[in-house]
Design goal:
There is one protein chain. This protein is mainly α. It contains 5 helices and 5 strands, in the order ββββαβαααα. It folds into 2 domains: 43 residues, no CATH class; 91 residues. Helix content is 64%, strand content 9%. The chain has a 3-stranded antiparallel β-sheet with strand order 2-1-5, with no helix packed on it. Strands 3-4 form a two-stranded antiparallel ribbon. The longest helix is centred in the last third of the chain and has 55 residues. The chain starts with a strand and ends with a helix. The structure holds zinc ion. The site of zinc ion has 6 residues, from loops.
Length: 180
Amino acid sequence: MSATYLLPCSCGKTTEVRPHQAGEMLSCPCGATLEVPTVLQMAHLEQVPMEPGSARPSTSWGLRQSMVLIGVLIALLGIGLTVGLFVTRPQLLDTDEVHDLVNAKSAVQSWLSYREDLRIFGPAWHSKKRDAALAEDVFRRNVWMGVTLTLTAGGIILATGATLQGRAARRGALSSDFEQ
Ligand SMILES: [Zn+2]
């Protein structure tokens, strides 16, 4: 957003000019032809004060607004993934339940059921392998939940940061307008 300057005429009226008009010929309402000065010379002219809430803040507001939106979307994605991982997590065996089941059997029954399990399911390392796979799945989920929670936090920080920055920039634009 470039500044607007007031090009004076000998009649006393002024015409608004912008830097990109440098060198152009304009006509004053009085009929006189005015040559727009160079950009350097233009800087010595009287400047039109920018009004708060005019084009200047709106150009950067679009970017900040989209940053807030992106931040919110990232946060929502992170929350969704975290909830998804949590809801579909494998249910670990309730150890108390298992213990009760084992304690309800006598030593001989336990031995017999162990022999039976061994006959049906094969050597004990099968269940160890399954437990390890389960533990690995739980571990992987915890890692991924850490990633998705970080994603959520990142989205919230981005949205909050862009919101606060937008407010600060608008305050800054207002105060600089008052200084002019
Ligand atoms: Zn004139």
